[in-house]
Amino acid sequence: QKSFDFAFENQPFTIEAVVSVQAGGGGTLIDMRNIYQNYSEISANYANLVIVNPMDMRWSNGSVFHSVAYNFTPGIEYTVAITRDSSNKLRFFVNGQKIFETTDTTNIIGSRYLHVGVTRLQNGNTERGFKGTIRDLRITKGTAKYSSDYIITYQT
Backbone phi, then psi, for 66, in 5-degree steps? Predict the structure, then answer.
C-alpha cells in the first residue's frame, strides 16, 4: 500500500511487532520506499527495520545506519519495537527491554510503499523477505510510545 501516512519526516514514531525468526532466517521486517520495483535509491529516500538472526537488529535509511547485537533464538517469539521521540532519540526494544539508544535526525520524506516481511525486487533481482512469522504489527506516527523499559500488554 502506498500512502503519505508512512512519511515520518523528522517526527516521532513507533514501529512494533511480535516476531519469530526461523533458523538461518531473519531479513527485512518493515520496508518503506518511494519506488515499488527499484530499490537503488539515494540517501534519505527510504527507511527499514531489519532483524538478522542471530546477530542483530538494524534501522537504516540510506544515510544513517544503526545496529545493535541481539541473539534472536529461532522459533521463539519476541516483541520488538523501535521508537524515535521529539528530541530525536532512537531506541530499540526487545520484549519490553531497551537494548539500544542513539540520536537519529533523519527526515524520512515522501510517500511510501509499505512492505511488511515480503520478498521484493531490488534492481530487477529478487531480494529475500523476512524468514519467520510476524503478528501484531503496529506503526504509530507522531508518538514515541516507549522511552524506557515497559510491560508488554498487547501480546497474546
Answer: -125, 135
How far is Cα 84 from Cα 15, in angstroms, rounded to an integer? 9
Cβ–Cβ under 8 Å, residues 82 and 14: yes
Residue whose cell numbers read 511488511: 116
140 close to 40: Cβ distance less than 8 angstroms: no
Question: Of 31, 18, 2, 143, which is closest to residue 83 (Cα–Cα)?
Answer: 143
Classify 49 as helix, strand or coil: strand
Choice between 77 and 115, residue whose per-residue pLDDT is larger: 77
In the chain, % of residues over pLDDT 90: 23
Q: Is the dihedral of CA 10, 14, 15, 19 positive or negative?
A: positive
The C-alpha atoms of residue 141 and residue 74 are separated, in whole angstroms, by 30
Who has greater pLDDT, 34 or 145? 145
Residue from 49, 51, 46, 70 nearest 59 by CA: 49
Residue 72, φ and ψ in degrees, nearest 5 = -85, 110
